[in-house]
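Comment thread on ticket #2218

A.B. wrote:
> Attaching the input chain for the structure job we discussed in standup.
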Amino acid sequence: MNKPKTFGVINLGSNELNLRIAQRENSKMKFIETLRYPLSLGRDTFNMGKVNFEKVVQACEVINNFLQVLSEYGVEDYSVIATTAIREATNRNYILDQIKIKTGVEINVFDDTQEKVYIYKIMLHLLDKAYKQSSMLVYIGSANIGFNILQNEKIIFTQNINLGALRVFEVFEDIQDYSREFYKIVDDYIESFTDSFSNLIKHKISYFIAAGSEISLIGDLCGVKAVDSFLVIPKEGFLKLFDNVKHKTVENICSEYNISLDRAEILLPALCLYKNLFKFTNAKEIIAPLVFLTDSICFEKLFNGDFQKVSDDINRNALSYAKTIAAKYSANIKHYEFVEKYALMIFDRLKKVHGLYKGEKLILNLAAVLHDVGHYIESKGHYAHSYNIIKASAMLGVSDRDKELIANISFFHSNAVPAETYDNYRGLGQKDKVLVAKLAAILRMADALDCAHRQKFKEIDVKVEGGELVFTLNSNRNTELEQWALKTKGKFFEEVFGLKIVIRLKRVN
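C.D. wrote:
> Ran it. Output below, let me know if you need it in another format.
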């Protein structure tokens, strides 16, 4: 009998360090060990901008203990991850170096979008189809909120907010000590973030789906028990808890509800966050799948096929949402669809030359859709405006790194050539610089084929023949501008790929 596959994750969170060990048993994932060690790295980061090294030493001791537990379970496959507290610390590099020296582990620091997307993936995997017809999907972390609207199984709106229960508490900790109306201050502060997009939500949403580290505590205090790893918290019970807590000090909350100080500190900010988000829905309850970042990582490793299906859905949503952004900025649909089609064709024809994969193809696709959005601001230098718009846009499923790549590819789709003189390019890592150059060169070729935005060609074929990239173009119109654009923009393509651009024109009736 084969031993069930196991995987472990050590997570350096903002409030605690935790270890989850999961085991695959047929079609189900079973957690065989969960350990938590309270250590508020986030408090240091949010207060001082960096983590005190005494806590780093503590963290190393805990990590070593967790590694011993993994060894005792015979788990050889594991990941060590970190999120906001380490990510935002100004001494992040020193922390990672010391942890590696003292524990021997490399830490994968998740960016904000990566963290949320992993959570969304396991949430979407667990949710019934009915919930995906009209839902608000929310993930509230210690320092950030991910907010999405699901309509007919598509994400039609997404927003990331630099806010979370622990961050709110740290901002207003001093006020809470003397203000009986502390909850009103927190409410007003939260609304200053959420009101900015409240007018964009056209219809009330049917279901409120939420995940986050505080939702289990809220469920416990409302007297709700989990069923099949889901909590269903009635709005009435939630509001009753809020009313009971809103005038209490942290010490009163600790005493009355018999919970630890660190959990008591973030309870009211968490309740204020959830209460504020209720206003976007007609929901009579919060539906909370009890999932965490560590769960999703285990799910990816143990059930990669199922995880990939959800990832593909997220990617389709990313493309759909990119087209929503393009429409918002009045992008020329026929042009970007033409560029999208032929950029992907060129990518496919160059597989043996560019050495890139499915993930990079998605990045190119998103850049093809969004490359011209800067025209909305001004045609002169539109590529720079495109860069700024893309950087400022939330795109579900697109990590901060990938968004930077998409923005750079769009920046260099026109006349500017990637060079160290550009700040946005200079800040990239060496591998990403090469990737941007490759994908920008491909996008430039596709864009050149529709230089006049008139879609003049009836058929286009692209082939690699020896040391040449041959474009066979069928048209009954004047295409001298497009031929000139191919040759002009092709100079950079030739520099990147070492392939000469050849044009074969066929006249059709």
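A.B. wrote:
> Thanks. Noting for the ticket: The longest strand covers residues 28-38.
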